[in-house]
Amino acid sequence: MDAKDLLRIIDDGENAELECKAAKGGLPKDVWETYSAFANTNGGIILLGVEQKGQEFYPANVDAKKLMKDFWDGINNPQRISKNILMNRNVKIIEIDGKEVVKIYVPRASREDKPIYIGHNPFTGTYRRNYEGDYKCTKEEVQRMIADQSPTPQDSKVLPNYGLNDLNLESVKSYRNRFSSLKPDHPWNGLEMREFLYKIGALGRLRETNEEGLTLAGLLMFGEERSITEHLPQYFLEYREKRSDVPGERWTDRIISSDGTWSGNLYDFYFKVIRRLTDDLNIPFQMEGFFRKDDTRVHAALREALVNTLAHADYYGKRGIIIEKEKVLFRFSNPGVLRIPLQQALKGGVSDPRNPTIFKMFMLIGLGERAGSGIENIHLAWKEQHWTTPELIEEFQPDRTILTLRTTSLLPQESVDFLKAVLGNYYKWLTNDEVLILVTAHQENYVTNTRLQNLTDKKSDEISKLLSGLVEKGYLEPNGQGRGTKYTLTEMFHQKSVGNSRYNPISSGPNVDNSGPNVDNSGPNENEPAKNSEQVLLDISEVARKKKRLNPSEMEEIILNLCTIKPLTLKELSELLNRQMDPLRKKYISRLLKEGKLELLYPEQVNHPKQAYMTTSLFTNQH
């Protein structure tokens, strides 16, 4: 990443992967909070020597070499921070606008190193990152990180007070029947039940006392729900199915572990759910020789997704396991975040299941692939069907991992036709990546940087550049800030054309070259006064289009002068001023409305699709 890329990221503002600190008085104390937060979440970049003025960021005058030395001294001091996970290449001095800035790249810490904390007490010095900044972790969050440090898997833990009387024997019998059918010559088939359970890891023995008990895996896999929740009060399994896309419709099928009509364990839950997930898959059958093959990659992918959800869950975490099936998607959600970095999980080849014994039990009856291949196989199945790329995300507070599999086409023809109808000749100027972004926003109602990382092979900063370009062209509108920003299609797509509003827009087509509004396409009103009006607007706003940074009072004056000429929409102001819509609204428009310097064109309908802004004097003249 060079200085040019950093400037662009800085202009987008601080987010979940970037923190700017002025550091004019030396190394800031809160740099350690951010270091801890990035290390315990998904990593990120800290910039020392960058200050914020309003909504914009500028390089400051700092002694970068001293800042870097002080940072290295601090991070290698165990009295200050629990562990240094950085290498020399992670900290460097770069030049931005002729000034030196310290760039610190903090990777995501391994589970063995988490939590990274300040001082001596992890329960008071551990931080994580969310869209609003660094936050101090709760005791429960820290406990979950400490639990994941252990080389001993949580599901191999022996529960000495739990025995065969806590198991659902029908579940065990069904499992043994499946095992013997798959492996009829296996020596375990002749074992007594107790020995068989010991072999597969469902029973264990405490070596210190030789006391026997169920393992956590055995209790979860074959136990009765009442016995499971006595040890795991948060334990809960749920399957939800909705067969139509009618808003507000209740679930048409639902299974929960606590309803008392079945065992409530993982083994029975798997077979109850997998039939429902796959029973109406609209996949063309295949032939093997003269015989029809009903099982496909998609069937296998759904089995893999369900097994992975059960094997990777943190059963001491909150909110339980939720499996959802809707008309065009499957969603698998489990407590606990990934134990390896998200990007590594998406690439495949490496696996670190939280419950390897449960994973092994499923593999013994032919369910689940080799470690590390699950997500890779799911991606291959969806790619084979030309469906939208699977989405894998992590959430915090509480910790959850969510896999969403959509059965919509990657580039549905109806979405492509829609874009062509709205954009006309401008469509051909779009790159393949831009088409994918707009189609995704149309299909899924919005798109995020994280979502696009799943859909493409591009990094976060590359995607930020693409999104910013589409915002500047007037195709996308950002909502929110940072990594949580959602980008939606702009008003022009909802109306299927621009130029039929009450007042003539600045341009009836998008601004392809980003050089300013397209005066030649000023809308249906071709009379000379309208053209003169547009030229006045261009003249007033020229300085803003040419200068990336303006004094806030100067920008405010330009906005008021523009809105004195005619009512202008946020998109029109964005094009005239060459500024993104969301920061423009938050920094200037909202305040000018509150101060009474601007009026709404439709005051009774704040969210009117043609809402525009005018000065009070123009509002009076109009009425």
Protein architecture, described:
This protein is α+β, with helices and mostly antiparallel strands and 623 residues long. It has four domains: 3-148, 2-Layer Sandwich (Methyltransferase, Cobalt-precorrin-4 Transmethylase, Domain 2), CATH 3.30.950.30; 152-409, 2-Layer Sandwich (Heat Shock Protein 90); 413-493, Orthogonal Bundle (Arc Repressor Mutant, subunit A); 533-615, Arc Repressor Mutant, subunit A, CATH 1.10.10. Helix content is 40%, strand content 17%. It is built from 24 helices and 23 strands. The strands form eight sheets. It has a six-stranded mixed sheet. A four-stranded mixed sheet has the order 1-2-6-5, sandwiched between helices. Strands 9-11-10 form a three-stranded antiparallel sheet. α11 (297-312) packs antiparallel against α14. It is globular, with a radius of gyration of 29 Å. Residues 14-129 form the Schlafen AlbA-2 domain. This is Putative HTH transcriptional regulator.
